[in-house]
UniProtKB/TrEMBL annotation, chains A, B:
<feature type="transmembrane region" description="Helical">
    <location>
        <begin position="12"/>
        <end position="30"/>
    </location>
</feature>
<feature type="domain" description="CSC1/OSCA1-like N-terminal transmembrane">
    <location>
        <begin position="7"/>
        <end position="176"/>
    </location>
</feature>
<feature type="transmembrane region" description="Helical">
    <location>
        <begin position="464"/>
        <end position="483"/>
    </location>
</feature>
<keyword id="KW-0813">Transport</keyword>
<feature type="compositionally biased region" description="Polar residues">
    <location>
        <begin position="742"/>
        <end position="754"/>
    </location>
</feature>
<dbReference type="Pfam" id="PF02714">
    <property type="entry name" value="RSN1_7TM"/>
</dbReference>
<dbReference type="InterPro" id="IPR027815">
    <property type="entry name" value="CSC1/OSCA1-like_cyt"/>
</dbReference>
<feature type="transmembrane region" description="Helical">
    <location>
        <begin position="416"/>
        <end position="443"/>
    </location>
</feature>
<protein>
    <submittedName>
        <fullName>Predicted protein</fullName>
    </submittedName>
</protein>
<keyword id="KW-1133">Transmembrane helix</keyword>
<feature type="transmembrane region" description="Helical">
    <location>
        <begin position="622"/>
        <end position="641"/>
    </location>
</feature>
<feature type="domain" description="CSC1/OSCA1-like 7TM region">
    <location>
        <begin position="370"/>
        <end position="642"/>
    </location>
</feature>
<dbReference type="InterPro" id="IPR003864">
    <property type="entry name" value="CSC1/OSCA1-like_7TM"/>
</dbReference>
<dbReference type="GO" id="GO:0005886">
    <property type="term" value="C:plasma membrane"/>
</dbReference>
<feature type="region of interest" description="Disordered">
    <location>
        <begin position="732"/>
        <end position="767"/>
    </location>
</feature>
<feature type="transmembrane region" description="Helical">
    <location>
        <begin position="155"/>
        <end position="174"/>
    </location>
</feature>
<dbReference type="GO" id="GO:0005227">
    <property type="term" value="F:calcium-activated cation channel activity"/>
</dbReference>
Length: 767, 767
């Protein structure tokens, strides 16, 4: 049992390390040489140039202005000054709403903390149960519910507070949902024209022997959306080409590296070995080698480009279909096209930069199977991940290594190395796994076949949350791996489980306080230091950078990392809500986390992170849903705890809470979730009307022409792959190759293939 | 433990009673006087007239043709002869697909029965575990899994069969889903024009101080669906008027009754007392009294009709909006209209006769609360219904009655009456509850606010199924009321529950065999006899019928009663799937039920039931879902059973089944459910195009004008309440009362209210 003194020491250490991080940051950010590490966002925006204060050469690298060091926390108010509207236009709605998660945390927990300290702490403190029991206990336990005697009437205070906290949390959530929904709608209604407002992603276009995918799509939409269809963009399977481009870039980097080396030391031409990892094979001149490699890849690339244009097999059965108006696109995206719901699937096109191209070609029948496989795999990952790690750990001990590589025995037996292996190696397998976990989860989400980066991140985030819930939260409380928990859940009765967990909760408060300080405080302070990007930037800057453009590319602004950061915030919501009634002493630590994280991330969003996509806060429903989950978990655990405290008669009173919370969630879902999923026709019509009145002659087709081409085609050969390639989009009367069937509209087996036989009738109607 | 002899006796009794019912039916249906009871469907269709074989007077009432009695089962082949397409056009798709539920049962269980008898029965029979144990057992138990020794290798046979049965069931379900979906699509695509194909139900039209609901709706849709909007029909709150009409009809019935009485016995004018239930108050002349009553009601009715037309408060904030094309309606029904998802809610209009008018005015914010209340109420009804019944039963004993009404004591103490009360009264409370249950569930569904009769019936059916599952299936197996079960579920661990239930399953086989015979065989045979409608028809015929029209109204054809009948079929699916592996001896009894029920209901659907609405088989997804539920339950219970039989190592092998079944369900849901929820645009466009080509000048507006008026307005004053009342629907340029705001399109707080200020712009664009 940790005493307040222990906590104090721990807090001091963590505050100290946080302060060191912040000081280091304050120092490093002022050095001009690090400018691109700490302010990349501004470089990307083009409003900041590499520092070139006239003056001395050294000034380019080191800041000699002593006064600026004195105000080493000046970034904090600066980070808070930018108003929200400016933030949205500077960094996008996603970033602004992401910051609101921290704000929501503050809004929920500041009043709860005050109330808990005013009401619950005195109620808990003025007992002497723990002293009477003569068990070992700390002062923190005296502040917690553990200090209330069995069956006491004082539990009424906790019960009331459980109600108050629930209603307050729900109220804040409701308000926030409303605010975010309004922000999203305002953002979507904002004046800027965007290609995705007019475009629908169509997947699973059924194959047709007579027509190409492009023709098929055009005919289908000309028939079924005659007044609205504008143009379309077929999707090419350019995965191989993308790989070539990536390889070329790698080679180019090596070439730059050796050229720089040669320039700096002109006396000796650098050489390289052609074999595996540059360690084996014959020695050749490095510059020549890489130049010829690049030429080879360029040739292959050109061939591949030719092939993509010519080979119809490289056209994916998907297309981006654009409409004349937002209304037309909104209609198409929200309706079912054919009677077979597995073909001609329409959904809103993601933003061009948000598209995850690799998954566009997956047929829908595979999706169910893929999801099943991933669900099973995730189940095992969640509950059984300890098994392979234990296996690796069993190998990674002294005896295991000595057996596997006997010739290393003399080295391993050296005392220093031996103690290192014994003390460090077992943990390293787990550490590597935890570092790799977000990537594993992202890989799983990719297998599931989602088509936009934003939805991939959302999916990974929910997987990560589940993992944290079982393997950090519950595992710490009942001190068992998720696998052992699974045993418990299967073998214990439904009303025993919350009791088992609930009883252990007050005892783990000190552990979680330490956790919040290490993971929350120091972790967030570490985030602002950006140690890894700092090192990598300087390495690249030294070895690779030749031109200003190279330097641009050497910057790694990173992004918010919704898939791994949001679940971690959610863990704090969970801890806060669970401990609010039980051990209010934990709440201030969480408050500090929220404040610190809010400031730090606001700074990072303004100065560092580069937004990868704009989903217009599409993630809020899952953020909301997870806070609701945390609330219900906290209610059930509190119920379990109270029923072991001789307050079993409170169970029905407390059971009301989860039921009401669940229906509150349903209400919110009905009321606000559509704003994140659908696109109302009224809004679409309003924007269309306004825009037509303002810019009557706007050429939408040209505007949309190259919006949705694969990034590897960007720039050089837009025209070749763009929507304009068929040059016949203006012809409303479509020429079809199926002359024989032209005037006999018999229903064909294939749903899509009948479409082209009908445009004549449609056009007769319209003329 | 019942032996095969006991089962034989029980079977003989039930078969005998079924045969008696069938014979009685065969006799009664041949009597011309009963013609309207057994063939009302044909009268309603107008293809059958009251029997008037020339000949003798007696022939009108009694069938004297002796030969017809010999072929007393001749209705059976007749019922089977009508081909499915004809059946669909005769009785609707709902009825035809309803019959497919029985067919599905046969398709699933015939091969399963054969396989189980070929494989499992020999495997079970050739053991002597039960004899070795020397426990009391019957021959049926020797055929069941109970006869396999603990930990035997023979369980592999059962395991394999569990897999085979699962895959067969899934295969049949998949095929049936596909067939039904195709039938539905073909039905919807069939040539007949129907008002609901063009119409969308709009709910929660936000109030506006300047315009009436009708104007508001017109303006909104003219702006947001300018090319497609045709006309609309406001909904009046005519609940009071409907009550008046109902009351008038009752008075008319009494008037008819007394007039007939007077005609038959002209010597004495009938009198009636005006007080409560005709028992108290002053005596008046009956004919005069009811004539004046009817006059009074007619006056009130006329006033009410006037009021409805004039009072804007009696206009419900909902409207039926019709479009020029199916395409336009499909678009509007499937999209969100405004950014506030709680106003301007659109959904497909139900068929006119399917509309449940009373619920059209419920605001959407109430719906969540109503659902919460009903969910809680249903939870208590399901698990706690025994409590009030036990309370009533405790009152309904001798002492209770004697205390309540002491003056009855001498009568009650009479031995005959006493034994009657003791033996009968306690059961009667339960019986009354069970008879009332479907009505209670329907009432609950109505409170939930659904707007069509078909969806009300579907909702009630799922409630009833849950009730049957807990209170008949599980209550019979573990022999506890649902309340006691709830205790078990809460106090037992998750893997103990299927074990507890699984172990009890083989022991209850004989009970369920008897249940199938009583409830299934005799019940279905009783259904065809239609005893209650028979009696009521003859009573009405004698007392009320004056004209041919009265006789028409005295017929009570009834309908399938999806809400109470379908869950009962599902119980047989559940029993069949659960016992298929455990006690295959039960399967033939279920087969007999399915065959008998199929023939009987096919006969009833052809000759008796009057279809109340046409939902185009919208209920199939829930039928499918419940069979899947039954399958998963059977798998889990079998898993629990095996784990107590020393075959615990089979658990992982069996756990695969529910997971795969669940994902099979998800696959089916993705693949086929949209066909029951959405309306594909391609189909809509195809029908529109064909229809326009065939009937270019069709006046859709007149056709739709009176389709969606409240049934109480039907006939007499169509024009007054129909869509044409405003006479300005053709004006595309809408005159609005808000002159001041007309040219200033500032976004107003209310989402709906901005709409009318924009048509000018829209029209400029279109001209």
């Amino acid at each position: 049992m940790a005493t307040i003194q222990d906590i104090g020491v721990s807090a001091a250490i963590n505050i100290l390390s946080a302060v060191i991080f912040l000081l280091a940051f304050a120092f490093l950010r002022l050095q001009p040489i690090n400018d691109r590490v700490y302010f990349p966002k501004w470089y990307l925006k083009g409003t900041r140039q590499s520092p070139s204060h006239g003056g001395a050469f050294v000034r380019k690298f080191v800041n000699l202005d002593m006064r600026s060091y004195l105000k080493f926390l000046s970034w904090m108010p600066a980070a808070l000054q930018m108003p929200e509207d400016e933030l949205i236009s500077h960094a996008g709605l996603d970033s602004a709403v992401y910051l609101r998660i921290y704000l929501t945390g503050l809004k929920i927990f500041v009043p709860i903390t005050i109330l808990a300290f005013l009401v619950l702490v005195p109620v808990n403190w003025t007992n002497d149960t723990l002293e009477g029991l003569k068990v070992e206990h700390s002062d923190i336990d005296k502040l917690s519910i553990s200090n209330i005697p069995f069956g006491s009437k004082r539990f009424i205070a906790h019960l009331t507070m459980a109600y108050v906290f629930t209603f307050w949390t729900c109220y804040v959530l409701l308000r926030e949902y409303e605010i975010v929904a309004t922000m999203r709608l305002r953002f979507l209604a904002s004046e800027k024209r965007r290609p995705d407002q007019f475009t629908v992603l169509v997947r699973n276009i059924p194959p047709d022997p007579d027509e190409s995918i492009g023709e098929l799509a055009e005919h289908f939409f000309l028939v079924n959306h005659p007044d609205h269809y504008l143009t379309h963009q077929v999707v090419y399977n350019a995965n191989k080409l993308a790989n070539l481009v990536k390889e070329k870039k790698k080679m180019q980097n090596w070439l730059d590296f050796y050229q720089l080396k040669y320039e700096r030391n002109a006396s000796k031409r650098p050489t390289v070995k052609t074999g595996f990892l540059g360690c084996f094979g014959s020695k050749v001149d490095a510059v020549e080698h890489y130049t010829s490699e690049i030429e080879r890849i360029e040739k292959e690339e050109a061939e591949e480009r030719e092939k993509i244009v010519k080979d119809p097999k490289l056209v994916v059965p998907a297309a981006f279909v654009s409409f004349r108006s937002r209304w037309g696109a909104a209609v198409c995206a929200q309706t079912q096209q054919t009677s077979n719901p597995t073909v001609w699937l329409t959904e809103w096109a993601p933003e061009p930069r948000d598209v995850y191209w690799d998954n566009l070609s997956i047929p829908i029948v595979h999706l169910t199977v893929r999801r099943l496989i991933i669900a099973v795999a995730f189940f095992f990952l969640n509950f059984f991940y300890v098994i392979p790690i234990a296996f690796v750990q069993s190998l990674a001990n002294i005896e295991g290594i000595e057996k596997a590589v006997p010739f290393l025995k003399p080295i391993i037996e050296m005392p220093a190395i031996k103690s290192f292996i014994q003390g460090f190696l077992p943990g390293i397998a787990l550490k590597i796994f935890l570092i790799l976990l977000p990537s594993i989860l992202m890989f799983m989400s990719k297998v599931e076949g989602l088509t936009s980066v934003s939805s991939l991140e959302r999916r990974s985030a929910s997987k990560y949350y589940i993992f944290l819930f079982f393997n950090v939260f519950l595992a710490s409380i009942i001190a068992g791996s998720a696998l052992e928990q699974l045993q418990t859940y299967l073998h214990q009765s439904a009303n025993q489980i919350p009791r088992t967990i609930g009883v252990a909760i007050p005892m783990k408060a000190t552990f979680f306080i330490t956790y919040v300080m290490v993971d929350g405080w120091a972790g967030v302070a570490g985030e602002i230091l950006r140690l890894k990007p700092l090192v990598i930037f300087h390495l690249k800057n030294f070895f690779l950078v030749k031109t200003e453009k190279d330097r641009e590319e050497a910057m790694d602004p990173g992004s918010i990392g919704f898939d791994s950061n949001e679940p971690q915030i959610q863990l704090y919501f969970l801890l806060g809500l669970v401990y609010a009634v039980v051990t209010p002493f934990l709440l201030p630590f969480i408050l500090v986390f929220f404040v610190l994280a809010y400031v730090v991330y606001r700074h990072q969003i303004i100065n560092v992170y580069n937004q990868e996509y704009e989903s217009a806060a599409a993630f809020w429903p899952s953020v909301h849903g997870r806070i609701i989950t945390a609330l219900i978990v906290s209610q059930l655990l509190f119920l379990g705890l109270l029923s072991t405290k001789g307050a079993g008669q409170s169970t029905p009173v407390l059971l009301v809470l989860p039921v009401v919370t669940f229906y509150f969630h349903k209400y919110c879902k009905n009321r606000y979730e559509p704003a994140f999923v659908e696109y109302p026709l009224q809004e679409a019509m309003r924007k269309d009307t306004l825009e037509r009145a303002r810019e009557p002659g706007f050429d939408l087709k040209t505007y949309l022409a190259s919006a949705y081409i694969h990034p590897v085609f960007k720039g050089e050969d837009d025209e070749k792959f763009s929507m304009m390639d068929e040059g016949e989009a203006d012809q409303v009367l479509v020429a079809t190759k199926r002359q024989s069937r032209r005037n006999t509209p018999v229903p064909s087996r294939n749903n899509g293939s009948e479409a082209p036989s009908m445009p004549e009738i449609v056009n007769d109607q319209r003329l």
